[in-house]
Write a sequence for this structure.
């Protein structure tokens, strides 16, 4: 693939992932509730960017400085996506009343939402610093927080 083609493919992928009308499908195990997506930016979007960043390493026609440059651009996009995810925490919290949780459950729910916010913030900081190696493990931890909350509380909502 030529450099221009690669740039076009990446550009097209990013554009399509950014349009509000084409939300990524709910991950397996999270049936679509038919309601507006709870999180406009998900960790799936971050993973997609991570994959693109890693794929650059195998682009044969790029020189090392070009690869570095592209990865920096991707890291910046990850930083932006993580920031958006961080500001989606309010959307998660807005579901709280409808879930009819008791006091303890509400505490746990808020704690998990807060934890996700902190994780998104930390990821944003690392991506901004272009600390690429730190991003993947942080992403895994973030996904664990998503799952914890769904395991505990998704059954209450719908
Ligand atoms: C603090 C709890 C909590 C956290 C953390 C959380 N979610 Fe959710 N999520 C929910 C609840 C509750 C629902 C069900 C909402 C409903 O049906 O009213 C839900 C629903 C969803 C849905 C189904 C679509 C929808 O809008 O109903 C998706 C997809 C989803 N979450 C993705 C994620 C991802 C990805 C993360 C992590 C980046 C995450 N969630 C973190 C509580 C959480």
């Amino acid at each position: 693939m030529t450099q221009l083609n690669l740039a076009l493919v990446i550009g097209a992928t990013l554009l399509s992932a950014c349009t509000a009308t084409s939300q990524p499908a709910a991950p397996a195990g999270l049936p679509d509730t038919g309601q507006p997506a709870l999180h406009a930016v998900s960790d799936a979007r971050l993973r997609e960017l991570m994959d693109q960043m890693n794929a650059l390493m195998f682009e044969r026609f790029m020189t090392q400085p070009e690869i570095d440059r592209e990865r920096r651009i991707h890291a910046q996009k990850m930083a932006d996506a993580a920031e958006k995810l961080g500001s989606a925490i309010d959307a998660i919290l807005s579901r709280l009343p409808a879930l009819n949780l008791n006091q303890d459950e509400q505490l746990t729910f808020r704690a998990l939402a807060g934890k996700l916010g902190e994780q998104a913030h930390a990821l944003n900081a690392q991506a901004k610093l272009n600390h690429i190696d730190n991003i993947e493990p942080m992403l895994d931890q973030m996904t664990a927080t998503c799952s914890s909350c769904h395991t505990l509380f998704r059954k209450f909502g719908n």
